[in-house]
Each structure stands twice: as structure tokens, then as C-alpha cells.
Predict the structure of Protein SERAC1.
Amino acid sequence: MSLAAYCVICCRRIGTSTPPPKRDTYWREIRNIIKFTGSLLLGGSLFLTYEVLALKKSLTLDTQVVEREKMKSYIYLHTVSLDNRENHELHKAVRKVLATSAKILRNPFAAPFSTVDIEDHECALWLLLRKSRSGDKTEQLEAVQEMSETHHWHDYQYRIIAQACDPRVLIGLARSKESDLRFFLPPPPLPSLKEDSSIEEELRQLLASLPQTELDECTQYFTSLALNESSQSLAAQKGGLWCFGGNGLPYAESFGEVPSATVEMFCLEAIVKHSEISTHCDKIKANGGLQLLQRLYQFHKDCPKVQRNIMRIIGNMALNEHLHSPIVRSGWVSIVAEAMKSHHIMKVSHAARILANLDRETVQEKYQDGVYVLHPQHRTSQPIRADVLFIHGLMGAAFKTWRQQDSEQVVIEKALEDEDRYTTCWPKTWLARDCPALRIISVEYDTTLSDWRARCPMERKSIAFRSNELLRKLRAAGVGDRPMIWISHSMGGLLVKKMLLEASKKPEMSTVINNTRGIIFYSVPHHGSHLAEYSVNIRYLLFPSLEVKELSKDSPALKALQDDFLEFAKDKNFQVLSFVETLPTYIGSMIKLHVVPVESADLGIGDLIPVDVNHLNICKPKKKDAFLYQRTLRFIRETLAKDLEN
């Protein structure tokens, strides 16, 4: 308008009745009009261009983000430092998200979708979330199962569930076989290490902070040993001398070597024993143990032994229900859920124990250290009708004892090699598939051939002591609530006999006796073993342990156990099946020994079947259709026929 007005004024001046101006004045006015008009046109063009570019920039959207971010109630947060103003804006956004989800989850679904900003295709997701928070346990379990079976969602939908679900749902998803790992958020960032500190040093400090009360002599000994070691080289010299919970044997590679071990392993083994005491678990949690163990777990990704010991500690802490919330908040469920996807039987079994102890919705039993469920390791709709318990023998383990037979001749050195090489476990693979209605449990405990290799100089564990310890752990795991069969190898069979005799004397253990249907013995030395005689004869070399001494033919304890159990088993009409080796076993490169002769493996009742294998392979079928496995399977099916039908 100003430009037009100026032009009009100039034209009027030119056309007035006053004498015409000189020619140069006329052109001067024209030039002024052109200059002013040009400036305005140029400035306006620049302004409009700037505005158009700015508007275009503000309206440009990342199409990938649009596809991923269809829900306004979901936000991705990057781990960057925020000032106070940004924090305030973020808190406002989070409050809005929480208000929206709360509105959906609290109110009936008849009304909210008319007012809540949510797209139609997202209704099923939020309905499942609401169903998972139902007070009806059946509905809640169904919602978790539906979530675990959903595999067509987008990434952001899994993340919505991960952020909005409660701990019960999270644990249920972790125990569901088909669950997507996107249901689990990464663990929270770990606190920084103290200045001039290391993981090893903080682990020592954690161990030193634990009470020295309520400990047996061996735990005190190992705690002191771990704290006093000032270097890993010195710790390595002691590494093969001690262990808890049955994982020590794999450290040994032969009778003449002491393997290396780190200071972390010393401390972890001691903390495992501390974690069996509830008040000590509280201290571990209070002193940042959950975060420190997580850091150590991630640091030792390539060391399964370290990771398994850490999971043993977490599994022991999970026995205490008041610690479930801190365990979940610290991110351990996400770590264990990932471990459940492993192909390594031992790793999965340790993870399954942790989750079973955390899952109070579908599991009533509690699994203490050394008691592992091989089947079912996930939530299942399959009713469990009976239990089968596997008890290993001298120098055995919960997993490697029951592996498939090696293709080459097995010698004692190979049997004692690193257990990580042995991942096959026929009770978990073959038996679970053939008898899905069984709960299959394998037990682990420490044994040793000689005091020279004993882990604790104060430890003298007899068969009677071990049987009471195992019986207590198995009863806590619900053993005795269902019909059951015991399967044992070597000295494990003596433990089974002693456990049943001890249970018969305790009224609270009566269900263990009443529900025992049968027993399978793999080369159990009911009347003594040549190994004990051999060890005694060269005691200057082996220094036989108490367990081995109790296996000698002239052992009064062994004879009394056999006489008492034979009478007891006949009275209870237990079904019994016994296998015995006929081939000698190589011990080292020079010694060949028939560990359990046929006459010693004869209990006096039931069938006794000689098999052309050695002592180590008597419980290791070559393949699924081998006689050893098929005869074992037939006995289980026949003995539990009525129970499995019901």
C-alpha cells in the first residue's frame, strides 16, 4: 500500500497545473520510484523464500519414525545428559503417557476408546495388558500366554508391553518358551566403579562386608582364603582345592594337576555359600551385590563357570520372596530370559531355577542350590503326574553323568575334563519327549575320591550327612507330593537308600515313602566296591575320602544300610531294576579296575541286568534306541502306568 501511495503522489505531482519541471527532475522522480520499488520487491522475495524454506524444514518427517511411532503414548529415550528445563519437559511427557495408560487400564473398555487417543489396531494390545492385570489368576495367566505366542507385532508394540507390564507378567513371559526377547528392556545402567577400584576389588569388599555368623567351618575357611589371596597367581595355585554345590569336580583334569582359578572365582564360591543364608542375602542386596554381580556376569561372557556361579547366587537370593522386587528392578529377569534361549543345558537349567524361584504364580516349590529341573523348564499346560529323580555318584554331576555315551572309549581323564564339552543330557532330551507328564529333577552335590583333593580340610561328609541334606532340599522342591521313581548311579544309589530310610523315621517325610513307586540302580555297590579296596591299599597315594572308605566291603555302615533297606524295600513292595557293568574302567593310563562287580550290584530284590560297558558308561546310553535307555523307559512307563493314566 505504501508503494502504491507513493506512486500516486508522484503521478499527481507530474500532472499538476504548475509549470512543468525540468526534464532532469522528471527522470529523477522516476528513478526514485524504481529504486524504492526494487528494494521492496527484493526484500519481500528474500523474506518469502526464507519463510517457505523454514516451513518446509519444520514439516519434514522421518518416514521410518512415522511407521514405527504410531502410538502417541510411546516415546524413545536416548541416554543423553539433560538440563533442568529438558527434564521438566520430559517429566510432563512421561506423566501424559502414564495418565493415558492408566486411564485405559483402570476403566472398563466400554467408554475409554471414545476419549483416549489410541488407534483401532492397537486395541488388542491394550486389552491384553488390561487382562494381564486382572485379579482373576486364570485370566492373567491366559494373557501372558497370548502375549508369548504373539509374533506379528511391531518392535514398538513389544516395547509398550515391556514398559507397561508388571513384574508378574515379566517373569511369566521369561518362563514362556516362545516369548520374544523384545518383551524385556535392557537392564538399567550400572553404577560406575569407584575411582582406583576394579571388579575384583569390589567383589572382595562385598565378600568382606558379609556377616561371619551362621556359617559352618568350611564357609569360614573359604571366605578367609578368598579374602587373603592378594594375587591371581596365588589364587590359581589353590583353585582346585575347594568348591561348593557340586561344580568343583569339573575343575580337575587329572589326579596330578591343580588347575588355575581367579580371585573372582574364589570370592564367588564363598558368596554362593553365604547366599544360602537369608540374612546374608539381604546384605548382598544392600551392598550393591545385584549390580556388581551383573557387571561381573557381563564381563565374563566367555566364561560359563563364572556365569553359572553368579546364577547360583541369584537363584539362592530368589528363594527369599522379599528380594524378588529388587531382583526384577535390577534387570536380572532380562538377563535370565536371554539365558533361557541358550542351547547350553547347564546355562538354561540355572536360568530356569532362578525363574522358577521368582514365579510364585504357577510354582509353589522352591529349588535350592544343587536341585535342577530338567523338565519342564518353562510354563506349560501339560499336567505333571509324577516325578523322576536323578542322583549321580562319586565324582559325578547333575548334567554330565547323564550325557549320551561318547563314541570313543571313555577314560577317567576325559570324564574329568571341562564339563562345558558335554552338553547332551538324555533325561532332558529323550525322556522328557517320551514322557512329557513327568517332572524330571537332577541333583548335584560334592564328592571326592581322596582327602588329597578335598575342597575343605574340615569337611567330612558321610553318606548319612549327605542324605539328610539332600532330603531336606528335595522336600522343599515338592518331592513326595507326586508319585516318583528314583534313578541313581554308583554311590548315588546308597544315598537314595539312606534318604528313604531316614524319611521313614520322620512323620513330615511320610509322603516321600508313600509316593515312591520304584528305584533304578546303575552299578550301585550295595556290598562294597573294588575302588575302595584299591584306594585303601595305596593310601599313601590317594588318601581315600570318607565317602570311599564307606564303600569298602568291610564297612559296618554299608552292611547295616544294605540289611535295613532290603527289609524295608520288601515291606513297601518297591519296584526295583538294577544294571551292572561287566567291563573294567580305566583310571589314568595304567590302572584298570572293575569298580562294581556283579555280586555287589545285586540288591537282593528286583531284576539285575549285566551290560557290556564300564562303570562310567553304565548310565550313558549310546543312542535312543539302545537297550539301556529303552529298558529304563519301559520300567518307568510300567511302574507309573496307573499314575500317568489318572
Notes: The longest strand covers residues 516-522. Strands lie at 371-375, 386-391, 438-443, 484-489, 516-522, 575-581, 585-587, 591-593, 607-611.
